[in-house]
Amino acid sequence: MSQGRIPMRLDVRVLNRLHIVAAFGDDAAEAVQSAMVDAVSRYMLGGAVIREMIGVQPTVPGLTPVHRIDEDLIAIDLQACPPPVDISLLIEGLSRALILEPVKWGDDRIHVVPLVRASWVLTENVSNEGDDIVLNSVESEPPFGGDPVLNGNDWADRYRRDMAAAARLLNDLAADELRFAYQPIRMAGRLESLLYSECLLRVPQFGEVVRQTGLEIVAMERLGLVRALDNHMLWRAIDRLRADPELRLGVNISAQSACIDGWWAGLEYRLKAERQLAQRLTIEITETSSIPSIPAATAFTDRMKALGCKIALDDFGAGRDAIRNLYALRPDIVKVDAFFLRQARHSAKGQAALKSLVGFARAIGGAVVVEGVETQADSDASLAAGAAWQQGYFIDPPRLEAPEVECEAPTESPAVFGRRVVPPCPPYVESSIPAALSGAADALPMQSHFEFRWLRWAIPAAAIAWALMSSGVWFAWRGSS
């Protein structure tokens, strides 16, 4: 390779390296970075099919395609311009693989917030010794990598608790333990009406018991890890829509995910090829986290609308920038936060506020849904405020998807785009990440996943033993002795 050649390069940056240093120490951050180099190498060079697809030719003497060139930066020299696979699919697959694979550090499991970007860069001082390669990086303002690092033990303690919660949920995701509970949105008094069913995330434990995931999702937002979950949720919903042509589904994504980047490449391909799926999909943008960039979010919603999806603004009124977001995003559906309905139960001022909010949402947005409808009085108050579309336990409770409709996570894109680059299964999948959190306000009130999995086997075993005893086997044995 001669000086001045311009190859295609992928940069992999660990956005939360400073967070890891502050919460776990320098040695942990170094171990994480080394693990990322290994993970990238496995992903890029793990099989002949992947090597052929991405155009990597690791046969040049002394040349290593994966280089660590900074404390938080890994560079991948693809050795082809351009590689035969769609580079956006490669970025999506690599991003997902890196975020799902935890790094073991003592009793902790640490996940990275990866930023994978493609760039055309000038390669200088090239030799066959590999380590002498200098790759000029192309810098731009990085996306969100977690809440700002603060001094003090309180911040570090919360970061570690958040990471434990995120590791728990990401482990469930990697093990395909996550399930949907569908909650329909209907017109008051009209059971046959259906706007769509919102997909609420649940983790089955044993029997009828499920674990809700709200606090874990908030922890993932604080850490900057929620992109992997949102990507998974949308793929799963599209899979469901494809299996059942009668379904109309809504999926929540964090405001952090509302931007056009490599995470959505495969989804865009699927929706472009199967427009009928997009027409039955509503993307709900939540306000639990602020929108990092209004222009980026607007570009995202415009792109999804162009594909045929509907856009909903969830929990309207709960965020500090709710009015600005409504004006900027122009959603098809506005979902009024349940807080305002609760206030309307107790005072005339609350009723007037609900009516004003519904009217404003209708004037700027499209259809208006009031959330949290739990009684007939709630439904009547929502109607009086001008909202016929309603959601809540009084309208319809969430129902966990039936086992017969469960299916594997999608692993391919439409045939016209060829084989999709799919992240390999992580070599380490934690079977139990205990919620050993302190008694702080944001600790998760739940038992460890290991205990529940153990009970799945223990309860049936105990039942079989009792049946044998009841049938006389026990007494026959006692008599023979």
Short account of what is shown:
The protein has 481 residues and is an alpha/beta fold. It contains 16 helices and 18 strands. It has an eight-stranded mixed β-barrel, surrounded by seven helices. Strands 2-3-1-6 form a four-stranded antiparallel β-sheet, covered by helices on one side. Strands 4-5 form a two-stranded antiparallel ribbon.
Instruction: Work out the helix count.
Output: 16
The third-level CATH topology of the largest domain is TIM Barrel
Number of strands: 18
Q: Specify the CATH class of the largest domain.
A: Alpha Beta
Task: Supply database-style keywords.
single chain; 481 residues; alpha/beta; Alpha-Beta Plaits; TIM Barrel; 3 domains; globular
Write a structural description.
This protein is an alpha/beta fold and 481 residues long. The chain has 3 domains: 8-155, 2-Layer Sandwich (Alpha-Beta Plaits), CATH 3.30.70; 177-407, EAL domain (TIM Barrel, Alpha-Beta Barrel); 449-480. It has 16 helices and 18 strands. The protein is globular. 40% of the residues are buried.
